[in-house]
Amino acid sequence: MAEKIQLEVVTPKGAVVSESVDIVTAPGYAGEFGVLANHAPMLSTIKTGVLIYKKDNQEQPFMMSGGFCEVSNNKITFLVEAADRGTEIDVDRALRAKERAEKRLALAQQQREKINVARAEAALQRSLARLKAAKSEK
Question: Which of 7, 17, 84, 115 could form a disulfide with 63 if both were Cys (CB 3.0 to 4.6 A apart)?
Fold first, then answer.
């Protein structure tokens, strides 16, 4: 039996995942990274994207948005703004959010509407990550 690493995903609403897993792949700001059991201690910032963990040859995707990750003592902890399991994502809602964000960004480029471009871009990234996590689940 291969060694495992303890995975913890925590949002402001509470713990989302607490499992012993084989490998974790996460979206860091410096690039995607993977963590196995007995990984060296590290800290990383997390960008909006898809976290995938593998347990018993089954992949589980999660949409994650912004936060931090710590690896220490055979445990990987994510403190993130939001995390949605791929199976729990409402694809229609994510598509509508993507369309709204794209429209707002297009209006901002045409100078028709004064909006917070950073917020619209963040909304677009979250919706794209949700769609990717939901697709990975199938």
Answer: 84
What is the Cα 36 distance to its own chain's centre? 18
- What the chain holds in terms of domains, given with CATH numbers, is 5-86 (2.60.15.10), 90-137 (1.20.5)
Query: What gap in Å lies between CA 32 and CA 41, rounded to an integer?
Result: 17
pTM given for the model: 0.74
Looking at the predicted structure, is the pLDDT value of residue 79 above 70?
Answer: yes
How does DSSP assign 47-116, residue by residue? -SEEEEEEETTEEEEEEEEEEEEEEETTEEEEEEEEEEEGGG--HHHHHHHHHHHHHHHHHHHTTSS---
